[in-house]
Each structure stands twice: as C-alpha cells, then as structure tokens.
Amino acid sequence: MAETGIKEVARRAGVSLGTVSNVLNRPQTVTPQTRKRVLKAIEELGYVRNDSARHLRAGRSRTVAIVVLDVSNPFFTDVVRGAEEAVEQAGGMLIVCNSGEDATRERRHLDTVEEQRVRGLLITPIGEGHHKRLERLVKRGIPVVLVDRGSGEPNQCSVSVDDVLGGRLAAQHLVERGHRRIAFVGGPLSIRQVADRRDGAAAVLAEHGRAELQIVQTRSLTTVAGREAAEAICAMPAARRPTALFCANDLVALGALQGLVAGGLRVPHDVAIVGYDDIDFASAATVPLTSVRQPRELLGRTAAQLLLEEADDTARHGHRHVVFQPQLVVRQSTAAARGKSLTR
Amino acid sequence: MVESTNIKEVARLAGVSAGTVSNVLNHPHRVRETTRTRVHQAITQLGYVRNDTARQLRTGSSRQIAVVVLNVTNPFFTDVVHGVEIAAEEHGVAVVVCNSGSDPDRERRHLSLLEEQRIRGVLITPVNDEHMTRLHQLAARGIPVVLVDQSAGWTNRCSVTVDDVQGGRLAAQHLLERGHRHLAFAGGPLGVPQVADRHRGFTDAACGARIAMAHTATLSIASGREAAAELAALPADERPTAVFCANDLLALGMLQGVMQRGLRVPQDVAIVGYDDIEFAAAATVPLSSVRQPREQLGRTAAELLLDEIVSGAAHKHRQVLFQPELIARASTDPGSGMVASGPR
C-alpha cells in the first residue's frame, strides 16, 4: 500500500522534514511563504496526517467514544445526539459503540477504545461488573463519564436521571387512576435502571397499602420482549390479570400495547400502560402512551461537557454527579375509562 | 498524562528482551513455550495492554470497521447497523457507528478521522456525491469501502442497495388501485439520491394523476408535522386525498399532524410511508409502508466488506440490488378507517 509520506512532502516543497512537521504542529514558527509552499505540496500529493503516529507523541486523539446498551433504542440515539453536539462544538468527533447488552461485546469495545487512546469515554455499562475495567481506563489517562447511571465513585463523573423517582411517578399515577393490580414489566433486573424503576413503583404501592407489585420479567428491553410479556398477560384469568402495566421502557410498552391489542384486550379500558423515556414514538403509538420522560439530549450533552472538561484539564477537574429529575407525561394509554369503575 | 505499563517493564519482569516480548505478542510460534508462559505471566501481573496504535503503524490496520450513517436516530439505520453487527460478530470484528447527520462537512471529518485511525474498512451511506473521490481514494489506500443504500458514481466497487425507483412505483400503484387520483409526494431534500429515486418512481407510475409536491427540509418526524400543516390548510376540494412520504419518520409526523388538525386517516388523507421501520406498524393508525430489507442490507454489506478485507486481491466486487415490497395497513385501507379513526 503506497502512501504519501512526510518525506515526499518535504522533497516536493524543497524543505526539511522538520519544517513540514513544524507546519503541521507549530505553524506559527514557520514563515508564511514556507508554510504556503508546504501546504500546497500536501494538497498536491494528497498527504494525510497519520494520526496514529501523532497519538503516540501527544497521547490523545480528537475522538470521543460512547458505548450504549442498545443503539436501536431511540432513547440512546437521542442521548448520542446530545453528546455529539457538545463534542463537535469542542472540535472533536463522536463515535458510537453498541454493546447490545452483551458483556463480551462491551469488553471488546473497551479494549478497542483503550488501544486507540480516545480522548474520553461515555458509557452506560451493562452491569456493575466492569468498574475495575473502567477505573483502569481512567488510570491510563482516558477519562470516563457514566451515562444514565449514578455512581458513588469519587474518581468518575456521572450523569443520571432519578429512576427511583421515575418509578414512583408512574405508580402514583396508576394508583390515582384507581388501579389495584399493577404489574411491572421489564428486565433483566441486573440493569440498575430497571431495578430502580421497579423499586420506586413497589415503594408507592406499599405506602398506599396496595397489593404487591406483580413482576413480569423480560429478557431484554425491546418491543419483542414487550409482545411476549403481553401474551403471558393475555393468558392470565381476568380476575388475576393486572389492570395496569408499568413498563421499564417505551419499547417494552409499545410491544406490550401491540401484544395486548392482538390478544383482544383494550388499552386503556382493560389494561392501562405507562412507559418510560418518552421517546418520539410514544406519542405516535396506536394508543398514545403515557410515559416517564427523561431529558435525553440534555443527558448526553451534560455528560459530554463533563468529559471534555476533564480531558482538557485533568488536574483541576472536580468530579461531579449530576442527577436529573424525570417527569410524567400523561396520554391516552392511562385515560380513565368513562362510566366504569376501576376500583375493582 | 498517566504512565501506562509498557513493553520494557514487561520484559524486565519476565527477564527477557523487549524483542522477545514483541515476538510473544506478534509471532508467538517463534518463542519457546516456557518463555511464552513467563512473558504472559508478566503481562497479566502488570496489566499491560498492547498499544494498538503502535501496532497499527506496523500492520496498518485495527480490528474495527465503521458504519457511517445519515441519521443515527432513524430506526432504518439502526436496523442496518444491527445487520452489520451480526456479520462482524462472526469475524470477531468491532463495529463503530459514525453519524454524518446528512451534513457533508461532518461526513468529511468522520472519514478523515477513520483514515487516521487506520480503520479496517468503511460502510457508508454518503450524504451526496460530494465525497465520491475521497471514498475512491480511501479504497485505493487499502481501506475497503462498501456503499450502502446508494450506488451512484460507484460502479466498479461493492455496493448494496434497494431499488428506490421501484419502491416509489409500488407506492403510486397501491394508491391508484385504492382509487386515489389526487396525490402528493412529501420529502426532501431532492439532492438525497434515495429521495429523488422514490420521487421519480412515484411520478412515473402515477402519470395521469394529479401530483402535488411537499418539499421538506429533512426526513424527520418534525418535518412531517410541518408538511401536514400545509396540507391540512388547503381547502378540502384542493387537498390531495393521499400522500406518499419519502420515509416512515415523515409519515409518522404527517399522521400526527393531520390528525391533530381534525383530518381522518385514511378517509380524508391516506398515507404511505417508506422503510417499514418497527414503529410503522405500531402507529396510531398502522402505516402502509414500502418495506426495505434493513438488516439484510447491513449484513450483506458487511459480508462484502469483510470478504474484501480478508481476501484482498482475490476479492470480486459485487453490486447487490434488493427489491422493496409494499406492506398495506390501515393508513390506506378505506375499510378499516372507521376502526382506526380514534377511541370509541
């Protein structure tokens, strides 16, 4: 593979290698005429600075990486949009890595970003297991900010949304609408956000002396998982079937909605649904979804800003844990049924 | 900068030369097993990570391929990415996603960074034909490029596309069969080849019908809502009875927009989208849409790319063309209109 090297540029411009290097790295030290000659040679030869070589010296790149749990979930692509904005304002570029909730893939991505010496890493980790791995990245000079995940870690910034409160808002709303049999649909519970949302909802039911929160566990947080859960719910005898579902995210809620309707149940008349995230598609659903809104782009933007601050001045940077508050958006999927008591 | 463990420390701890450590990493068969074990022990103890940047300088490649997409928040592209990941996983190759956001300047910056990082190969849906020369250059420099969902100006290399002209035709034929004679096309910018092709197929097949044109600035839900406002503002006898939207995001925005203004879908306005993303079937009124084989598009493109990476000169370039398929749902079905018009 023949590549234009710095030597050819020097030869073409009739200058030394050092001068070409100066033009690239310290242009102010070179006279304008020489600079122009070198830049012209670069253009003519199609020379591309080899960033790998530069990294070895400078130890950092312009690339920021974000590792998300599921790139096909609009929640995460909205977070990506927010992060992208902040990174690009600072003159960098964001690359997106999808762990797909798979530990092996997460590890492979972490290996790659470490080897590439990215400027910094934004990550929503799969479980709690990789703290050591992330700590090692930090020790090697790659700052890490946790996204959508609170952290007690003193040496790491985090940006999260209060998921326990989100769970509380959802359950409170359903209790106010008179529901007594409420089920939480989501999983795996090893994902902290999922467990927190469930805990918040369970606490509200306990405070109101209501029946315990039923749990319908799913393997993942996708529309397919939501449809499967709905099939199980449709198969329950009506007397035991929950009258309301609180789904761990909007994809599960949208799948559940489709599954319930396909199974002959009406939403919200037979079963009400609350989702989580308030992605764009929640309001566009067959029955517009009530959902717990997260400030998705703001989450990404804030995380990226903290990361860049740390990357620019590691010594002076003070770690922060930013926690946003979620907000309930009420739509038709929990509308009170007219002329029908929900307090059965 | 934090110091990282380097090859010298590994050599010192293992009591061998730096060259031997390098051999263990790169040509293990040249090293005696006892020495190999000793070096591996030292590596584990010190937590040494091979500096891939240095390795890339020698071997000229990483174990990573990139997908450059037009809009990471469009589920069409994340489905394509999913297909890419399935193929890459089989080869143990990591996938990074870069979002051009339909901005040629961002596309250029991503391509530069990818080249500087010596990415193994690039899958790209280009914003327009502005960077075709740049892509040919990349390929000539040993970074294979496969075009996804577009092939104009790329005749001698690999591409994977769907016949968009045919897709536009299918939409027009469907609406004509349903008795519509006053149609509209919503989409833009027409500089996007996919949009231009869909528009061309649509107008070709709908000759004889009246066709209004609703130019949109982007292919997003928000643009769909704006186009709906224009459409709804027309007097009923001048309003098209059916709209073909250049993608499903536009169609979902169109659906929300016209319904908010009191129009019924499909009785007052029928809607056909494009892509058949998962959310199309889950919409307020389930959307008729021209389906693209999204995952298969990504998987096929990645397989071609990986073959080119692995086979080198033996690789044969291929241009794969898939056929789209019309999926008819309630948004164009007069019979289901009463059911879908709202809550009863």
Q: Which band does the percent of strand residues of chain A land in?
A: 15-25%
Order of helices and strands of chain B: HHHHEHEHEHEEHEHEHEHEHEHEEH
| Oligomeric composition of the shown chains | heterodimer
Percent helix range of chain B: 40-55%
Instruction: Report mean pLDDT of chain B, rounded to a whole number.
Output: 88
Q: Describe the sheet with the most strands of chain A.
A: 6 strands, parallel
Number of E-type strands of chain A? 12
* Structural class label of chain A: alpha/beta
Q: What would you call the structural class of chain B?
A: alpha/beta
Strand content of chain B: 15-25%
The count of helical stretches of chain B stands at 14
Overall radius of gyration of chain B = 26 Å
What does the overall shape of chain B look like?
A: elongated
The global form of chain A is elongated
- Low-pLDDT parts of chain A are 51-59, 338-344
Overall pLDDT of chain A? 87
Label this structure with key terms.
heterodimer; A: 344 residues; alpha/beta; six-stranded mixed sheet; 13 helices; disordered C terminus; B: 344 residues; six-stranded parallel sheet
List the helices and strands and how they pair.
The complex is a heterodimer of chains A (344) and B (344).
Chain A: H1 6-13, H2 17-25, H3 32-45, H4 51-58, E1 63-68, H5 74-89, E2 93-98, H6 103-116, E3 120-123, H7 131-139, E4 144-147, E5 157-161, H8 163-176, E6 182-186, H9 192-207, E7 214-217, H10 223-234, E8 244-247, H11 250-262, E9 272-277, H12 280-283, E10 290-293, H13 296-312, E11 321-324, E12 327-329
Parallel strand pairs in A: 1-2, 1-3, 3-4, 4-5, 5-11, 6-7, 6-8, 8-9, 9-10
Antiparallel strand pairs in A: 10-12
Helix pairs in contact in A: 1-2, 1-3, 5-13, 8-9, 10-11
Chain B: H1 7-14, H2 18-26, H3 33-46, H4 52-59, E1 64-69, H5 75-90, E2 94-99, H6 104-116, E3 121-124, H7 132-140, E4 145-148, E5 159-162, H8 164-177, E6 182-187, H9 193-205, E7 210-215, H10 221-233, E8 242-245, H11 248-260, E9 270-275, H12 278-281, E10 288-291, H13 294-311, E11 319-322, E12 325-327, H14 337-340
